Automatic annotation (TrEMBL):
The keyword Protein transport does not apply. InterPro entries: Metallo-B-lactamas, NDM-1-like, RibonucZ/Hydroxyglut_hydro, ST1585_MBL-fold. Residues 24-223 form the Metallo-beta-lactamase domain. It comes from Nonomuraea phyllanthi. Pfam families: Lactamase_B (PF00753). One of its GO terms (molecular function) is hydrolase activity. This is MBL fold metallo-hydrolase.
C-alpha cells in the first residue's frame, strides 16, 4: 500500500490520510510478537489504518495494544473505531485521558466549540471504548511488545496534560506525539504546538529536557515522520517555544487582541521557516496551519500568560 513506509526494526509508518490529505498525521505499527499501534489518527481515518494493518498481516484478533500519546482527536479520535475493529487489543493512555476515551461526550463538545462545522470533515466522532479495555498509565509505565521488547511511557505534559512520550527498547525510537512540536519533512522545519487550554512553557520545556535525557536514537513525530538528528531537533523545539512565547508575551504586554497578536507573531516568525516548494507542499502546509497554526499557538500562549499574570503591565 502506498501509505505504509518501513522504518526498520519492525516499525512501519502509516499515513492515516487525515481528511483525505497525505503527510499530516502518522500512526506507527510496531510489528513484534505482540503487535502495537501507536496513534490511531482520526475517526474518519480508522478504516485506512485498519486496511494498512491488514496488509501487514495484522488481522482483527492479532493487534495486542493500541497506545496514544494523548487524546487530541488527530491522535486518538479513531480509538473507539480501532477498538471495535480489533476486539483483542488493550487501549493504553495516560490516566488523565482515560475517562475521556470511555466517555468522549465532554471532549467532543469542547472540540465542536473550537472547530464548529469543520469537526466532521477533519476529525469525525470519537466513539466510546469499554472502560475495562482501557489501561491507564501513571507518570511512567511499560507496554509489553513481546519477546523482551517494551515500550516505556514517560509523562510529558506542556502541550497537553494527558501527554506521554514512548520509548521502544529495541530501536531507541521515541514517539514524541506533539510535545516536541510539528515537523515538516519536506523542509526540515519545526514549529511549536501550543494550543489552549493546557500549554505551559516551563512544563513543555521540562518535557523536552526529559526527552533529551532519555537518549533516544530517533524521534518519530505524529506530524510527521522519523527524524535522526535527535539532539539538534530537540534543541530547535525548545528554541521555537521560547521564540513564540517571547513574541506573544510582547503582544500581550502591548495589549493586543488575538488577531493582532497572531498577525505580529506570524510576521516575525516567517523568516524561520522555508517557503512552500510547490503547490502540493502548500496544501500540506495549509493543513499543518489548521492543526497547529499561529492562531491556535498564540491563543494557547495567551491563555497561559493570562493565567500566569492576568494584569501584566505594559
Amino acid at each position: 500500500m502506498d501509505n505504509i513506509t518501513a522504518l526498520g526494526g519492525d516499525v512501519y509508518e502509516i499515513d492515516t490520510k487525515m481528511a483525505g490529505y497525505r503527510g499530516i498525521t502518522a500512526g506507527y505499527l510496531i510489528l513484534g510478537d505482540r503487535p502495537c499501534l501507536v496513534e490511531t489518527g482520526t475517526s474518519t481515518s480508522a478504516p485506512v489504518v485498519r486496511d494498512a494493518l491488514a496488509s501487514l498481516g495484522v488481522g482483527p484478533d492479532d493487534l495486542a495494544t493500541v497506545v496514544v500519546t494523548h487524546i487530541h482527536l488527530d491522535h486518538a479520535g479513531g480509538v473507539g473505531d480501532i477498538a471495535e475493529f480489533f476486539p483483542s487489543a488493550q487501549i493504553v493512555v495516560h490516566e488523565k485521558g482515560a475517562r475521556h476515551l470511555a466517555d468522549p461526550s465532554r471532549l467532543m463538545a469542547s472540540a465542536r466549540m473550537v472547530w464548529g462545522d469543520k469537526l466532521d470533515t477533519l476529525f469525525g466522532e470519537l466513539s466510546p471504548t469499554e472502560a475495562e479495555r482501557i489501561v491507564a498509565l501513571g507518570d511512567t509505565g511499560a507496554i509489553d511488545l513481546g519477546n523482551g521488547r517494551t515500550l516505556s511511557s514517560h509523562y510529558s505534559p506542556g502541550h497537553a496534560k494527558h501527554h506521554v512520550g514512548l520509548v521502544d527498547s529495541a530501536t531507541g525510537d521515541l514517539y514524541v506525539g506533539d510535545a516536541a512540536g510539528v515537523y515538516l519533512p519536506e523542509t526540515g522545519d519545526l514549529r511549536p504546538a501550543t494550543p489552549p487550554p493546557d500549554f505551559d512553557l516551563d512544563t513543555a520545556l521540562n518535557s523536552i529536557a526529559l526527552f533529551e535525557a532519555l537518549g533516544p536514537q530517533r524521534l518519530l513525530f505524529s506530524h510527521y515522520g522519523p527524524v535522526d538528528a535527535v539532539q539538534e531537533t530537540l534543541e530547535r523545539s525548545a528554541e521555537e517555544l521560547r521564540v513564540w512565547v517571547d513574541l506573544t508575551r510582547q503582544a500581550h504586554s502591548e495589549g493586543m487582541d488575538l488577531d493582532h497578536a497572531v498577525a505580529m507573531v506570524r510576521d516575525r516568525t516567517k523568516e524561520r521557516y522555508s517557503p512552500p516548494k510547490s503547490e502540493d507542499d502548500g496544501g500540506v502546509r495549509e493543513q499543518f496551519e489548521l492543526l497547529s497554526g499561529a492562531p491556535s499557538n498564540v491563543a494557547g500562549i495567551l491563555h497561559w500568560l493570562n493565567r500566569a499574570s492576568p494584569q501584566k503591565p505594559g
